Amino acid sequence: MKKTVNSTKAPKPIGPYSQAVKVGNFLFISGQLAIDPKEGKLICENIKLQTRQVMENINAILEVAGYSLKNVVQSTVYLSSMSLFEEFNSEYAKYFEKDFPAEQ
User: Fold this and answer.
1) How far apart are the first and last CA of the chain?
2) Is 66 in a helix, a strand, or coil?
3) What totals of helices (H) and strands (E) does the chain contain, helices first?
4) Closest CA to 54 of 71, 76, 70
5) Rounded to whole angstroms, what are the CA distances from 82 to 11, 41, 43?
6) What is the pLDDT of residues 79-91, one digit of tens each?
7) Domain spanning 2-103 has what CATH number?
8) How is the chain split into domains, by residue range?
9) How would you classify residue 91: left for phi > 0, otherwise alpha for psi between -120 and 50, otherwise beta?
10) Can you give the pLDDT at residue 97?
């Protein structure tokens, strides 16, 4: 049986989808943008701030579902340019202690 999961600490979906869906012990989180849920605005300053906001949005959804970033098995990341990878990666890595998730 599936159950939708929503956090008030993450941006509301901007289309016909849920923030996340839980099926059994699995949680599937929809793609996240760097939207500040308090302001409802997209963060555009730089890739580090964007990455931080996306990770905070994901973390908020995980928490309301009873999970943490330690439970993340796989993630998919889209960058507009590989020139952003180093800055993105330095911020992204701060959210995981060890046993990093698989990337797609």
Assistant:
1) 27
2) coil
3) 2, 7
4) 76
5) 26, 25, 19
6) 999 999 999 999 9
7) 3.30.1330.40
8) 2-103
9) alpha
10) 85
